[in-house]
Design a protein that fits this description.
alpha/beta, eight-stranded mixed sheet, three-stranded antiparallel sheet, 19 strands, 27% strand
Amino acid sequence: MARLLFFGDRVPRGALGWDAATLRAAEELGILRAVGEEVVPELVLRPQTLGPAGVDGWIVSDRDEMAGVSPLRADHVLGVGGAGRTLTSLLPRAGSGLALDLGCGCGIIALELRLRGYRVVATDVSERALRITAVNVALNGLDGVETRHGSLYDPVADERFALIASNPPFVVTPRRAGVTRYEYRDGGRSGDALMAEVVAGLAGHLAPGGQARVLGNWEGAADRVAGWASGVGTWVVERERMDPAAYAHLWIRDGGTLPGSAEYDDLLAAWLDDFEDRGVSELGMGWVIVTASDPALRRVEAVGQQVGSEWLGAHVAAALAVHEGLERMDDVALAASACRVAPDVTEARHHVPGEEAPSVIELRQGGGLGRTVAVDPALAAVVGACDGDLPLGALIDAVADLLEVGAAELRADILPRVRELLFCGFLTLD
């Protein structure tokens, strides 16, 4: 059984110990096919930890390179990979209401949403993906997941959701002869047009107070991505930037075509010609986080460092809540509030040999997005004194007195930067 369904090997039919009816049922379900006296797997079955409670589960998907398939079939349904794990980590730990898994693939996100308390609509343009999602829902003993066939928002045209999660087919793929259109990653649009459609459509399908988590790739600057959304708050996190050659290599290799072959060279030429013709010099990869309850949010940041996935969803949820609260708090109210330094924050000071004063002061975050922020002595002093006892205004005034600068001017300089530190999780309001 392990050889057949985990490693993807063909095995003698007698070795399974299944009777004829079981073999016939498995073949009708598309799990395997009989070839003479052997059976050949059509799918692989692998263990998967599911939900915030970490229950033991199983995921069925198409055979992949690990099971000896190369190149992949055009309608390949991907198992749980890095992108699926990342999107899972971005999800809230718990929720309620109706959620949408847009482009469900094997159904891993639909399962995660259901285990977090949502009722789920899972859509995909691939009938094969929807069948495999339905199998995985049943295999893990769940209900409350409805599958629908169609492109993007077509199957949910008039519906709104408490949460939309999507790992769409976002790969920028040349529209040229000889380039395989893998359904799981190619949405059939030129450039990053599909990504733009997904982001632009969120506002029309989020319920009041609803949120979205979307993975994607885009051409050029990440600022373009924030511009695709209107009427909702948008936070774009760029995790990586790549030049066209590196990007092409990544996705050609992902399809199972290895460097050194004539097919690889032809594909690389097609990708690079497409990028050159359209003037694309860089591509970005990352996340788009959207909130319908806070349309004032407009944030684009690059986060290239490694990020611990175990606290990612909680950090995103906390940051959105902080931003919403700060929007209702003017500088007078903020100055009257007390703050604390988050327990995962440390300070690093860099000195030029022989100099008493540091040349660089950095605040470093152990959790969240693992950010490092350069601060000046005034902000470092204010942050260092944030123990929840005194309000920010009093701390800033004391630092102004020590530095012999105007208190009003220092407040105008420090308070906007305190807002940023609160959003990022370096500080918390007491």
